[in-house]
Automatic annotation (TrEMBL):
<dbReference type="InterPro" id="IPR001789">
    <property type="entry name" value="Sig_transdc_resp-reg_receiver"/>
</dbReference>
<protein>
    <submittedName>
        <fullName>Response regulator</fullName>
    </submittedName>
</protein>
<feature type="domain" description="Response regulatory">
    <location>
        <begin position="2"/>
        <end position="118"/>
    </location>
</feature>
<keyword id="KW-0597">Phosphoprotein</keyword>
<dbReference type="Pfam" id="PF00072">
    <property type="entry name" value="Response_reg"/>
</dbReference>
<dbReference type="Pfam" id="PF08664">
    <property type="entry name" value="YcbB"/>
</dbReference>
<dbReference type="InterPro" id="IPR052048">
    <property type="entry name" value="ST_Response_Regulator"/>
</dbReference>
<dbReference type="InterPro" id="IPR013972">
    <property type="entry name" value="YcbB"/>
</dbReference>
<dbReference type="InterPro" id="IPR011006">
    <property type="entry name" value="CheY-like_superfamily"/>
</dbReference>
<feature type="modified residue" description="4-aspartylphosphate">
    <location>
        <position position="53"/>
    </location>
</feature>
Length: 295
């Protein structure tokens, strides 16, 4: 990934550059202390991601994004801000900002957000290539219908910023398994039954089945934890953010997310321990997928 940093604070630019380099997340192709100085360089270098400060003299972050888009820039934007202003934050999201990084800069938060951005960038490229390939071979209406369950689930996971996480494939597999059953159920079976049902392959031994089921559970747990952290980051800076408002109270114990928000707002180096309810997450995801699939 190729990054460009626009921030009038040299210390912030240095910290972000070090986090990117030390985290092996890509390269910083350029930096600028203001939007006016950064526009021409960004248009010349075509970075994948622009990390841009919200409040800067002469040309602020939102105005810079508008100017870049008017010039045809297609990269992603991550806003850097220490101001919690709902109107400005809402406007930033409308302009296409993917995520917010809070000041003072927290290394854990930056790594988490940049990794999600990288996975989304790669996945979008892969999905685009797949769509183009399918269009070239004349995909039939029936095939599109069969793949729509996966598309629905991936869209929801993408909203939570976990589409590239290690457990996202497991989550898709579970929902596809449930949707392919002859009889739809309102309540899911036990997680143990569910894991074993989707991991059962040929003559797998009982020990192999238990081991793979346990591994699946751990992958899904880590992925859901990442969703909690992502939504907490959104809520910490903008309580009215659409993804936060929609997913946080439906898929999770809201108090757990609230605790994480407080930890982020206070700038703690380590986030609080979160209780994960896997069954609730899968139950809500299954019901939402079923509703969207049948309409």
């Amino acid at each position: 990934m190729r990054y460009f940093i626009v921030d009038d604070d040299p210390a912030s630019r240095t910290m972000l550059k070090n986090i990117i380099m030390e985290g092996d997340l890509g390269v910083v192709v350029g930096e600028a202390e203001s939007g006016i100085n950064g526009v021409s360089s960004i248009l010349t270098m075509h970075p994948d991601v622009v990390l841009i400060d919200l409040l800067m003299p002469e040309l602020d972050g939102i105005e810079t994004i508008e100017r870049l888009k008017m010039e045809g820039f297609k990269g992603q934007f991550i806003m850097i801000s220490q101001i919690v202003n709902k109107e400005m934050v809402g406007e930033a999201y409308e302009k296409g900002v993917e995520f917010f990084i809070h000041k003072p800069i927290n290394r854990v938060e930056v790594l988490s957000i940049l990794k999600k951005t990288t996975e989304q960038f790669r996945l979008k490229g892969s999905l685009l290539a797949i769509q183009e390939s399918l269009a070239n071979i004349g995909l039939t209406k029936t095939i599109r219908r069969q793949s729509s369950v996966k598309e629905i689930v991936l869209a929801i996971l993408n909203d939570m910023g976990i589409i590239g996480e290690v457990g996202s494939d497991d989550i898709v597999t579970i929902i596809e398994f449930l949707m392919n059953q002859d009889k739809r159920v309102a309540q899911l079976p036990s997680l143990k039954e569910l894991y074993e049902a989707v991991t059962m392959k040929g003559e797998s031994s009982e020990s192999d089945l238990k081991r793979e089921s346990k591994a699946m559970e751990q992958r899904i747990r880590r992925t859901i934890l990442t969703a909690v952290n992502n939504l907490a980051s959104l809520g910490a800076i903008d309580y009215t953010n659409h993804e936060f408002e929609y997913y946080a109270p439906r898929y999770f114990d809201f108090q757990e997310i609230r605790n994480q928000m407080i930890s982020i707002q206070e700038g703690r180096s380590e986030l609080v321990k979160v209780k994960i309810n896997i069954k609730k997450f899968l139950q809500v995801l299954y019901l939402e997928t079923m509703e969207k699939y049948t309409h």
